Give the backbone structure.
Amino acid sequence: MKIASFLSLFLIAGFLFVGINRLHPVGQPLGNQNVFIDRTGELTDITYVDTMDDYYLRNGQRETGSNNIVASVVFDYRGFDTMGEASVLFLVVTSISMLLYPSIRLKRDTVDLRDPRTGFPMDMTRIVSNGTYLMFPLILAFGAYLVIHGHLSPGGGFQGGAVMASGTALLIISSYITSHLHRTYNIFSFFESLGLTIFIGLGFAGIGVTFLSNFLANTSPAFFGRVIDLGPNSGYLNSAGLLPFLSLAIGMEVFFGLSIILVSMFHLARKEKDEKGMIK
Amino acid sequence: MSKHLPILIITIPLLTAFMMPIAARVGIRFRNVLMLMAILAINIMLLSLIPEVALNFGTIFYTVGAPNPLAINPEGLAFPIRIILKIDGFSLFMGLISGTVALVAFLYSWKFIKEDGKKTYYFILMLLMLVGMIGLEFTNDLFNFFVFMEILSISCAALVAYETEEKHPPYAGYKYMLISAIATSFLLLGIGLLYAQYGSFNMDYIHNEMNHSLLDKMALIFMLIPLAMKAGAIPMHMWVPDTYSEAPAPVTAMLVTASQASLYGVFRLSFSLFGNPISSISINYNSLGWVIIILGVLSMFVGVAMALVQHDIKRLMAFHAVSQTGYMLLGVGVGIAVYAAGDKGAAFESFGKVAMIGGIFHIMNHAFYKGLLFLTSGVIVRRFGTRNLDKMIGLAHRDTFTAVAFIIGALAIAGIPPFNGFASKLLIYESVYKFSPLLSIIAMFVSVLTLASFVKVFYSAFLGPRRDDLIHNTEPISAGMKIGMGILCVLVVLMGLFPEVVIDVLVEPAIAGLVTIR
Amino acid sequence: MSDFFLYVTVVLLIFLGVVALLYKRNLIKIVLAINIVESGINLFFLTLGYRPEGTAPIFTLAPALSDLKMVLPTPQALILTNIVIGFATSALMLTFAILTYRNNRTLDIFKLRGVEDHE
């Protein structure tokens, strides 16, 4: 049985190998190499456009108003997939809450003694507590920067939200979050649902045209609709229409969702202590 | 508003699912009513699509994010650049099945699932499972198909492990998630191979540009095998008995429709994506058809053979689900095999189309009677506290309603008139006989064995003296459970008495959506 | 052959991941094997969109338009989605493994094998 499965695996790998030789060589994908020649600045410019990606590269900046073409693909051209992906994240958070419900929601909140000066448990050293105080706001700020500037530099909702969630991991490791799960959980769950509702609400806001249409792009600079010049520029924050808002909503959802998962798994492993601090 | 219907069917339940935790904070009854309204809204919207899509053999397109919903290609371009949703007869057919079974399962679990703190999450996951199924069936974009399939898989896996305090449900959920993860990874590999060649994800565009090279055949294999694996066909059926038996009863009824959504994927890819048998360069439809036929016959036979020896009622029914999937594969496989027979479609017109009608009609029938059987098994298991047939006896004295529902389901699955199983199985027998008499005889033999195993179950669980000392749970069946099972009973009987109505209204447009692409 | 070096890496990663999936007995090692397969698929998509001397498809502070070449943006969007889905899969499978260990006191699939034929 083992030999048979190993042989069949070799066959499949060989099959894949033979086929992959017929793919295009690495570095020569479909599409036009010089897709930026003679851009006219119209909204839909289809000269030299051979494939879907050529269209994105040539017209993405003009049509959606964002400098980051990947962000415009993720949130504008293929925004429906992003909604599905956000739903997957919400789904997984819901599943883990459901599966671990008897194990964690029914545990009592512990009473542990904290040092009134630092807010950490009594036996925590100064390096850990001060380090956490320094690092956590910086991590949140960096994550928020990634989220807000998603349409200008590499980043976006998912990346920034994941960075922010690593801040929560820091808090757990340094024992700042040890108890009071119910309050934490309710707050995080509310904001996560809020983020996702904002995303779908923004999608419905453009329903006069279609769902998830970028109706704020190329309107007025007050509503993030600044028309930007083609070609390399230095980046303007109030461009790209709906994209910063979608990015914010996703960043909020990812941050709170990942935090719920981290906190739930932590509380699963936490041993219950009674009032005297002895492990039950 | 009607031109936005495709997107509303997918996003309104999503919005409801996201607001469900807040609704549960307001009150339990409010949450139940909200969920009921969401599922009823989906079903009403799906039914309202019937005049345009089914009766007129039309297709609805929706471009997400474009200046207007029908702007598939921007001006002057030959390819689409956004995500397109496309509802044709087959999508609507599968969507109606999913919506109906979801409504029934929700009504059943109103009181069946105990009201501990997990029930809100249960409803959220059930709603998201329905969204995943309908999104999968409505999309025309390969990567969107993958994303919705992931939504479906993850919610199914989490619901399977609902009873987290027992020993086996979490492990069954683990195995289901494992199978799904591998299947979707290889599906993505196939999608990547197609993207590398054509530069687009849109199914219609790839269909028009397809040149059937070796890479395309490789992509076909990499996409069909994982989808067949998730549909429960032999030889990748191992996860079906474990998963179906450990899940709660209404979840199992929806798992049947989830497996059929993967079967939808198999047929959609073989016909709409890789189908162009008129031209000379194409895949060999005869061999593809024969592969599907062999898979179908093996599923039928192995499924029913393993079911005969089972002592566990839900594992027995799960093996029968594998066996009935074989019938669907057989019917559509015969249709594929004669599709491009070279005689300008004469064989297809005479019996291939009837085989396909039988196979696709069987999908709907199977969802309904198998859902009914699993719901009755939920009652049986809850009464006796065990799934072992040897420890059950004499339930018909207490639960006559369940006994009648079980009889209806068992006669339907065995193909006895006047229930709906008879209609689709007769179509399959007749047309497959003209193709190859041996296959038809095997199909009829499998039907006989199916009836035998369900007679065994009925005898064990329902007949016999009344033994109250074996009953663990004496609370009466709630109204929701009765309404749920009643809806399915009525559908099974009505579809058996008037199959021509269903075939003309629903199945013929489904075939038209699949077969006559050009 | 050097043109296809990256594709060969993809095939190797997937092959190793599936081998580990089939032959490892610990539930958590199987989760890691799935992660390896997902990494291979992500690398495959990344390779599909590569152009030599291409920069990231971002116009902020990009080189001048005359000698600008960009890699394809669409595979990057797919990889984003796939990474999130892979994370979700791993988190869920690990939760199942935790619950299985809690209820059965073992993580070995051979010891858990007899669960199907209970009763």
In short: The longest helix of chain C spans residues 74-104. Chain C has a mean pLDDT of 86. Chain C has one domain: 2-58+66-114.
